[in-house]
């Protein structure tokens, strides 16, 4: 009489290990996709915080301040600039010896997450001491009604005053700015189809 031993055969162990490997592979791929979308959301949060912080600087110092954005398609960053002559006109900081040059605040460069960049953004937004927001000249502001209509429609597209995207992906964070309050009025996340 043969005695039956408990345990698994080598074939059974190999099947279980293969199933675990497949499940882990799919989980890692899905986690990677989910995390890329989170980078766009985090970028949107960073923009909202930078808008609020720039507005606070303007109110606290009773001066004009600007939130300057990196160019589209390049590494995403923002800087807070002080309007040195307090005229409300962004001159840039190319020549610090010029009295009209607007100085970037030390320690107030904000980096977006890796692979996150601006798809649509003005060169800068300005904040008056009273908190009113203004866009760079020539920038076409998206109206709140258009923002709502597009994002609540059946086929939403990336529309907003500021649109952040993940490089080589279809994840986007769309932000609508309110001139009167100087805040991000609403935001909408668009994922991959």
Biggest pleated sheet: 5 strands, antiparallel
* Class from helix and strand fractions: alpha+beta
Number of strands: 9
Count of spatially separate domains = 1
Tertiary shape: elongated
Rounded to the nearest angstrom, the distance between the terminal CA atoms is: 62 Å
Give an overview of the whole structure:
- With 193 residues, this protein is α+β, with helices and mostly antiparallel strands.
- The protein has one domain (10-190).
- Helices cover 32% and strands 27% of the residues.
- It contains two helices and nine strands.
- It has a five-stranded antiparallel β-sheet, covered by helices on one side. The chain has a four-stranded antiparallel β-sheet with strand order 4-7-8-9, sandwiched between helices.
- The protein is elongated, with a radius of gyration of 24 Å.
């Amino acid at each position: 009489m043969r005695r039956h031993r408990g345990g698994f055969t080598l074939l059974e162990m190999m099947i279980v290990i293969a199933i675990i490997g497949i499940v882990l592979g799919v989980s890692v791929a899905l986690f990677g996709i989910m995390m890329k979308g989170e980078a766009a959301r985090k970028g949107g949060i960073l923009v909202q915080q930078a808008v609020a912080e720039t507005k606070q600087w303007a109110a606290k110092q009773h001066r004009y301040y600007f939130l300057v954005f990196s160019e589209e398609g390049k590494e995403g960053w923002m800087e807070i600039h002080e309007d040195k002559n307090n005229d409300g006109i962004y001159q840039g900081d190319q020549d610090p010896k010029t009295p009209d040059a607007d100085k970037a605040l030390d320690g107030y460069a904000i980096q977006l997450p890796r692979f996150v960049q601006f798809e649509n953004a003005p060169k800068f937004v300005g904040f008056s001491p009273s908190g009113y927001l203004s866009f760079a000249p020539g920038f076409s502001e998206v109206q709140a009604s258009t923002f709502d209509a597009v994002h609540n429609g059946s086929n939403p597209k990336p529309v907003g005053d500021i649109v952040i995207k993940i490089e080589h992906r279809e994840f986007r964070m769309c932000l609508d700015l309110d001139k009167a309050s100087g805040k991000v009025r609403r935001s909408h996340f668009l994922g991959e189809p």
